[in-house]
Each structure stands twice: as C-alpha cells, then as structure tokens.
Amino acid sequence: GYDNQPFFGPDGRAMLFTSNRDGKQTDIYFLELQTRQIRQFTKTAESEYSPTLMPDDAGVSVIRVEADGTQRVWRFGEGGATPAVVAPAVKPAGYHAWIDAGRLAVYVLGKPATLQIVELATGKATVVATDIGRALLNRPGGTISFVQREAGVWRVKEWVPASGEIRDLVPALEGSA
After folding, report:
1. Which tens digits make up the pLDDT trace of 51-105?
2. CB 62 within 8 A of CB 48
3. Which residues lie below 8 Å from residue 46, measured CB to CB, with a gap of 6+?
4. Quick check: 65 and 46 in contact, CB under 8 A?
5. pLDDT tens digit string along 110-128?
6. Distance, CA of 77 to chain centre
7. Cβ distance 95 to 135 under 8 Å?
8. pLDDT, position 177
9. 73, 63 contact by CB (below 8 A)
C-alpha cells in the first residue's frame, strides 16, 4: 500500500491524503482525526495525488495523472463529484498551492523544474523561479514558500504575491532537498 501527501484541514480535525489500496492506482481519502473514520473521496480510473482544499470551500484540488500520462491540476466537488481540469495548459504539474481563489502556484516538472503562477481567469502561467525542489506551501500571510537550488546549494525562499518579490529565508537542511 501507499499512504502519503497529507493535507490537514484548517481546523485540525480532519485531513485528506493520497492512498493506493488496490495496487493499481491512487485515490484521495478523507480521515476524521478524532474518530479515525476514513472515507474514500475520489474513486477514478486515473491516479490523484496532493489533495488540497480550495479557497472559499470550492472543493478539493489534486494533481491527476490522466489516462495518457498527462499530469495537471484538477478540481473535485463535494464527495469527489464533478471533476474538472483547473489549469489546462499547465503540465506536467507535480505539486500545487493556492494563493487565493483566482491564482495558483504550481511546481512544473522539467529540467529544470519551475515555479509557475497561474491566473485562473486567463489560464496564463508565469514562471517566477527555476530549478526548484518538490515543496510548495501557502504560508500565513499569503506568501508561497519553496526550495530553490543556487550554485548547488538548496535555499528556502518565499514568493510574495503582492509584489512578485522572491525573498531568501534560510538554507535548507543538509540532504533535505
């Protein structure tokens, strides 16, 4: 089996996570932490990863590996219903973090991997950082933290939505990126 990529709800009472229960593909599950009750959220032929609650209770977004192998950000409504692609042109997506209801930060796989900011209204994606690692987080205050390699050294940084500025925070722990 495989249980990974937890996303804790804002009240700390529940979490979403990725699980492979049949040895074939992954789906998203919901865990009520106090009762330890688990229920399946998605049940598809494709694999879903990296569940994230969307702003404004608009659903759950995931990285979905489509039948042809394409990886994009998808949205699922209540109970895993009505799947729809969120950012059709942004691929192959590896991870994502919501900035607000209209913007999304996406780790896009490649050589090098890039951090792209997607304006959902237009579908336009702008590369704001290159050679980034596999970590994105929406931080208190609305910034997006990520790791980036510079001259062979990994650093923790943050992108500031209001200004587009990238701030250097701290070195990453040795061997962590």
Report:
1. 999 998 889 999 999 999 999 999 999 889 999 999 999 999 999 999 999 999 9
2. yes
3. 25, 64, 65, 66, 67
4. yes
5. 999 999 999 999 999 999 9
6. 16
7. yes
8. 62
9. yes
What are the C-alpha distances in Å from 76 to residues 54, 55, 81, 134?
Answer: 10, 13, 6, 23
pLDDT(1) > 80: no
At residue 56, the 3 state secondary structure works out as: helix
The answer to whether 96 and 63 are in contact (CB under 8 A) is yes
End-to-end CA distance of the chain: 25
Dist CA 144 CA 106 (whole Å): 10
Length of the chain in terms of residues written: 177
- Look at residue 176 and tell me whether its pLDDT is greater than 80: no
- Name the residue among 52, 53, 43 with its Cα closest to residue 19: 43
